[in-house]
Amino acid sequence: MKYLWMVGLLLVSSTSSLAVDNVFEIERVADGVYAAIAKPTFRLNCNAAIILMGDGVLVVDSESIPSAAREVIAEIKRITDKPVKYVVITHFHGDHFQGAEAYASTWPGVQFISSDATRESILKRGIPRMKGEILDLPGRIDKIKVELAQVSDKKQKEQIQQRLDQAEAYLAELKSIGLVLPTQTVDHDLRIYGTTRTVEILWLGRGHTDGDLFVYVPDAKVIVSGDALHSGTPTLTDASPYDWIRTLDLVEKLDFDYVIGGHGDVMRGKETFELWKEYFTYLMANAVNACAEGKTLDEARKTLAPTLIAKYGTRFGNIPAPFARTVDANIDRAFRVVSGPRVQ
Ligand SMILES: [Zn+2]
């Protein structure tokens, strides 16, 4: 039987304590396997998977800020008195690794595991993006303040104020994060033997990024997939779409009933795999056609975006962003993959 409980998150800004209604829902997926489902907030957190191994705990992914990870840690402590021994970072995006410090300070012996590619990408792309976000956020916060001054509706004002509070708290925390890098890397596969179960950590090919890891719990028939598969809309910004299709094919060969994705609800079965592969295949075929017809990227966007929205707009969840908001960036990536560096 599944059960849920809610966790309130208190973010502390540099100026005042602000209670914001960011929450995780803890869902029991199988015996000793839980999903911490992140609710939307100004800066999205990822879902975490909590896997009890007998003598310790393995967690998958570590949120966008340590205070959010600490909320997951509080939940882990309600579930078990065993320590977290391993944190698997599925890929280099900030909402999956920036909160890792909270685990290091709570359990100093914890190992952080990623693929080789992800460790390198955190250094070369993840950390620079985080610094870029620190520079970019004050401008975004100013825009929210302008928006706040322009509305008079009480409810709307409250919502914008909440977004502003979350943005300011996020910026304050981002500036003081002590980053933790993976302490152990995987090239293809790694088995972790607990006293009650064995977990497989798998790199099966490029996909959402070049370093995506899957965590497979064979006895519970659960797979944890990061952003290589979730119940929302796929984002291709750092993706290898053709490889991604092949990688998902390989994952589907495993024996599992439940999938804990990096965002959104826990999935059952393999239906979402089929939807994502169909979307990538359709997107890439259309990008190839647009290229063959000599279209510029801008022309391709204009013709392809409405077609994709009509065909797929309602078939994906709205996390991390609604389909219509991701479609242009996904077309850009598809077009660049098929056309190479010539396209501007
Ligand atoms: Zn991602």
How would you describe the overall organization of this protein?
With 344 residues, this protein is α/β, with parallel strands linked by helices. The chain has 3 domains: 4-119 and 179-269, Ribonuclease Z/Hydroxyacylglutathione hydrolase-like (Metallo-beta-lactamase, Chain A, 4-Layer Sandwich), CATH 3.60.15.10; 125-175; 275-342. Helices cover 43% and strands 22% of the residues. It has 9 helices and 14 strands. It has helices at residues 66-79, 94-97, 101-106, 116-150, 154-175, 241-252, 271-292, 297-312, 323-339; strands spanning 4-12, 17-30, 33-38, 48-52, 57-60, 84-88, 111-115, 184-186, 189-193, 198-202, 214-217, 222-226, 258-261, 267-268. An 8-stranded mixed sheet has the order 1-2-3-4-5-6-7-8. The chain has a 6-stranded mixed sheet with strand order 9-10-11-12-13-14, with no helix packed on it. A hairpin with a 4-residue loop joins strand 4 and strand 5. It starts with a strand and ends in a 5-residue tail after the last helix. Zinc ion binds at residues 91, 93, 208, 227.
Rough shape?
globular
CATH C-level class of the largest domain is: Alpha Beta
Give the helix/strand class: alpha/beta
Radius of gyration: 20 Å
Oligomer: single chain
